[in-house]
Fold:
Amino acid sequence: MSFSSDVKKELSQNISSACCYKAEAFGMLLFGRSFSLSEISLMTEFQSVAEHYCTSIRDLTGVTPNMTCTNAGNYKILIPTRAERIKVLEYFGYTGKELSLRINLSNLEQSNNDCCSRALLRGAFLVCGSVTDPNKEYHIEFNVQKAKLCSDLMQIIDDLGLKAKKIIRGNSYVIYSKDAESVEDYIGTMGANHAFMEVMQTRAMKDIKNQINRRTNFESANMSRSIEAGLKQVALIEEILQKIKLDDMTTDLSELCSLRLENPDISLDELGKLMNPELSRSAVSRRFKKLEKIAAELKSK
Ligand SMILES: [Zn+2]
Structure:
């Protein structure tokens, strides 16, 4: 099951107060496939949405929609008769002859917490929205067929304090948002609490992973620096050994040289610990300085 379908299933099962139940059904009708005198219909791939659409219309208006399943596995819902369509349209304050469909705000009860605006958004999302799995990317969108309806929905989204952008894609108007925080806000605002927690956790996990990655990169950068330094020292020692034998060096230097040749990839710290007696990092470093001096002298001879 896709993340979208999980969210829709959760939203379809939400229990709304009476005012919001109406606002949500209104959202589903208005942003469904068609809401006019000649046709009131919805086409959806989600069973939970199809059933919720039918139940809401029946509960509120007493009209029973007709649901069929297409060969492609989609659910097609129609209100069969003209008389029934008029009943549904009138219930939401429409005649069905409107030239351009707008959101009739009288279907939303004014309240302090914007409950009905959120319910309308939820209804719209159920029938024309989708959200990508936050593990893959952050993306939520509403695909609206009519320009003015799109503007009205944008206004509601704006009033709810949510961020959105608008583009035209083919024949539709798409309202979308692509940042993590917004996707989280939309899901929370619509009331999918379970999905909201999931997105929040995913985001927290991503943050932690990023932090770990940054640290690993930093550590491996440090490590490659020390390997690089080790290899340079090996080259230096080999250069010296072309002119002086190991046995001819002082003991402190010959021991360091042979240990470095055996362990080209360890840090100065670790190299110091292998010496007998143990040496500090800076003491090891001083001895390499000495070796560099010797190499320079040998070169100039
Ligand atoms: Zn309400």
